[in-house]
Structure formats: structure tokens, C-alpha cells
Amino acid sequence: MSDSALKAHLTHAHVAEQLGRMIRVRAFEQACVEAYTQEKIRGFLHLYDGEEAIAVGAIPVLEPRDRIVATYREHGHALVRGVPMNAIMAEMFGKQAGCSGGRGGSMHLFDRATNFYGGNAIVGGGLPVAVGLALADRMRGEDHVTACFFGEGAAAEGEFHESLNLAALWSLPVLFVCENNLYAMGTALARSEAETDIHRKAESYRIASEVVDGMDVVAVEVAARRAIAAIRETGKPFFLECRTYRFRAHSMFDAQLYRDKAEIEVWKAKDPITRFRDWALSANLIHAEDVARLESEAAAEVQAAVAFAEAAPLEPVEDLTTHVYARERPEPPPKIAPAAPPQLTTYREAARQGIRDALLRDERVFLMGEDVGAYGGCYAVSKGLLAEFGPDRIRDTPLSEAGFTGAGVGAAMAGMRPIVELMTVNFSLLALDQILNTAATIRHMSGDQFGCPLVIRMATGAGRQLAAQHSHSLEGWYAHIPGLRILAPATVEDVRGMLSTALREPDPVLIFEHIMLYNRTGPLSPDAGAVDIDKAAIRRPGKDVSLITYGGSLWKTLEAAEALAKDGIDAEVLDLRVLRPLDDATILASVAKTRRAVIVDEGWRSGSLAAEIGMRIAERAFYDLDAPLARVCSEEVPIPYAGHLEAAALPQVDKIVAAAKAALGRA
Question: What is the value of pTM for the model shown?
Fold first, then answer.
């Protein structure tokens, strides 16, 4: 054992407790191996054999109010934290009695009762979430620590660096615990990292760091006590690099051909369980009968857990679609006529008013993003709010979309109501991991234990000659993802009022604001209220053809409808407003009335949202149609810079008019 172990004051009871915890984890995982070979546990199975000293040394030092974010090798973390073994084993078996309701499996164990915020199957994906949990604590002045466990492979990920930078920049109470087992899957650390001392990376962000022997449970405990005490005293992050070794393969699918058997044997000689047991026996801190008792108790508990999991029922297939969204949502806002007369307002100012209203109404709300402070964001939507609300609630971020979006996810999970601004929709792709893999899935994976009431705003669309990388219309991509709500406000009333409603939602909401609308004006009462985010809106009634659209294309479509009217064609214009979930009832009712439909979508034609809407109409209203469905989409090219080419690539009034006339046989 290390010098720290020899110097530590270890009682018989504490030695037995720590040894028992490690034995218990090892026994649980051995049972999982047996169940896996019997095909009772499936999927990826990542085992913690050899690394038990880290979880056992660090986690009991935390207090119940503290939070834990784990990685995909998290069985040991969950067991040591106090998640019931029966619930963990049932989760491994995919049973309804599992700690995540059978929705998460081996890599996604969650338990709200113990503040266990789950494993994350994305390498490094939990780091920004941990930062967000700590940010919520910092903003509320709460004395919590968030411990985040991850492997050394995560140190190569951008989210690692973005998270460390944010934690240091904002002085957040995060304990980063790197379980350095020397191999990221099959790639040795020396082959993948220019700097193999991982803690040096933390030091580059001026985060206090320490290296500890991760095979020595007492050394880990001493270091964890020191680190957590420092975090509670200073409020600043701390980084522990625990050098360890996994005795088994990366996962049960891994043939483990990349490691020399002699190397494995060298490390097995450092087995944290036998090492601690033998030292404690020689120091007369524990006795052979104690060891036998601990092993017997662990074996009995594991046997009972396996029996429990095998007997537990599966979740009924009828419940398949539960936990995608919250079971309960706020009632739609009542339609209240404003008392104040309407004033001519820009879309930009209406969006700003919506943010300001939210900040005034709810102290949990804050805005976070690049240049949202003094600059007011890329399109100056938040200009002036920094002076009114201060830098804590109008929070400028580094250029780190994955990092601050993930921080928004974590803060939302902790009960805050973040508004994350992604400067433009193309930058959202840098945050797609956090949006798709965490925000959209956390409720489902956790069996409804954790939600993510996050609002993400972003500018979308083309028309300003910003060329291919700043002219995307990707709303249809995001509308493909279950667990998200997607809004596309096109009017000043909607861009203000939809935000108010979205911030009351228990699930993540993405709001797409078209860049060509920011300078557009419309009447808006200063006391206009919240807006329903479930229903499409008929912007122009008609009887001859349904023109279905959303966002920036609404105004082109209304212009096209007026042009059609001059030719005696009465077009109905339907503003979708809500792209997920789509308001099928309003769409189908419009088509049933007009018997023709043209869908106008600024997204590319292939795989477009227009294609989805058209297929829904074909599936459910085919016999209502008197003409083939039609759509007007962007051309299949990256949006060009030259103005005349950009215009030719996008849906325009003349194209909409032509499509409508063709549907009526008047082309």
C-alpha cells in the first residue's frame, strides 16, 4: 500500500467497509459476465474489474446532496453510490423493475433518489452535463459538488477541453475524476495522446490537479477527501487522475488482441482487492473470518439480485412510447386579448421582449451563448439585456457549442430554465451530440426520472448571401428526433409568445428564427401573452388549394396566395409553426377542404420535412385529394454566395404560384 495508507487512521470497521464494497462490485460484475454468456444481458457490457478502488475510494466521500455523472463503465459507481443492486441487475436484464425502467441498460443507469445522474455511452459526453449541474448550483448559491467520472480516452474529445475551460472560467464546483486505464478501447494512450499525463491538461486550464494510484483504495480516498474539501472551500474545480487498469476487455465484444498477456499479469499483481485485503490482514486491521464473511454476503446479495432480475416482468409493449415526452405538461396558455393597443415591432425586438419577459417572470431563467452580452448576439436580439440583468443571467460563453449546450442540459436537469443561443443553425451541428444523445433521450433513458426543460434558440435559413456554410435550413433534421419539440415562429407574436410557452415545457424545445425575419415588422401589443405551441395556424383561409409552409417561407407563400387570387384561385395558407410534433389534424382538415396541397419548405428536397408531410397526407388523406401532392423546396445544391444564384436555389413566389397552378391543372 502507499505511504498515505500507512499514515491514514484506518479503523477495523472502515477497512471492512471499503473491502466489502470492492468485493461487492467485483461479485456483481462476475454475475453479469455469466448472465451475458447466457444471453440474458445483451448489448455492450463494459466491466469495472481492476478499477474498483476508484469508485470505492472517492464516492463515499461525497455527501448525499452531491451529484454523480458517470461514464458507460458505471456499474461500480452506481453500486457504491447506493443504487440498490436489485434495481441495477434488473436494468441489466432490461426489466421494468430496473433503475432506469429497462430503458437504459448497462450503459445508462440512473437513480434520482441517490443523485446518480447516469452513465453516458458517448465518450466525454457527460462532462458538459456535469458542468451544467455545477453551474446551476453556483447560480443558486448551493453548496453541492458534482463528481464526473470518465476514462482517459475522453481527454482527446473536444467536450473534455470545453468542459474544463468552462468549469475553470466560471469557478464551478466539479470534481473531475479521470479513470486512466491506459487504453481507449484498443488504442494505447501513448499512441493517441501527445501528452500522456492527463492531469497536465487540467493544469493548462489552471485547475488544481493530482495524480493518484488508482489501484490503491486508501490513496484514492485520501486524495478525494483533499479534493472535495478544496472544492467546498474555494468553489473551484479539482481534477484527479487515477491511474488504473481494467483486467477485462473494453467490452464483452472485444477480443483484446492489443494487450500483451504479460502486461495484464503485471497489473493483476496490483489487484486493488487482493492488495488491500493482504495489507489489511498483515496490519491486523481485518481478519480472515471478516474477509470470508464479506465474500459470503456479497455472493448472497448477488445471487438474490439475479433471481430478482430473472423473475421481474418485462415492460409491456403497449408502453413503448412512454417517456419520450413528459407525462404531464402545462395547460396551453389561454388566449387573452391584450389590453394595450398594438405597436409596430420588429421580429428582432419581439424576440428580445420574449427573453426579457422570461427573465423578469422566472429567476431560474438565464440566457447563455456566444456574444449574447454586450454584442447582443449575432443578430443583436439580446442587446441591452446584459446591462439590465447582469453577467450571471446574460452569460457570454467561449466558442464551444458542445460545451455550453451540454452545460445548458445539465443546468436544466438541475431545475434551472436555460435559454441557449446557438449563433446560427450550422453551428448547432457542433452541439448535435448534446442535443441528440442527451437532451432528447435523457427522459427516456432514465425511465422518466430526469427531464431536460431546455430552450435552444438559433438563427436559420438563407437569403443574405452568407454562402454555403451559413445558409442552412436544418429544421427538418431536428424534427426527425423524438424527444424534442421544434418551433418555427414566423410572426412577431409567435417569436415572443412561443418562447414564453416553451420555457414552461418539461422537455427540450428548439426554436428556429429565420434570418430574413429579424428586420420584418408587425403589430404587437406590449402586453401580448404566451402562444400555444401545439397548433398550426391558418394565416389565410381558402378553398382551392392548401399551401403548407413555415418560418421564413410564410411571407413568400402569402404573397403567392395574393398573386393566385388575382387569377381567381383561392389559396389557403397554413403556417405549421410547430414542426415536431406536427399538427396533423389541422393539416388534414385543410387538405380535406381544398383537396389539393403544395408544401413549401426551404430545406433541400431529398429527405425534407416536406416529404414527411406529404407522406402523412398520402397515408391518411389520399382519397381526399383531387390532384397529386406537390412541394417547393430548395435546389439540391449548397447555397451559393452570388445573389442571383442564391435566389434561384431557394423557394420563391413564382415557384409557389407555378406549383399551385399545376395542382389545379392551370399550369
Answer: 0.95
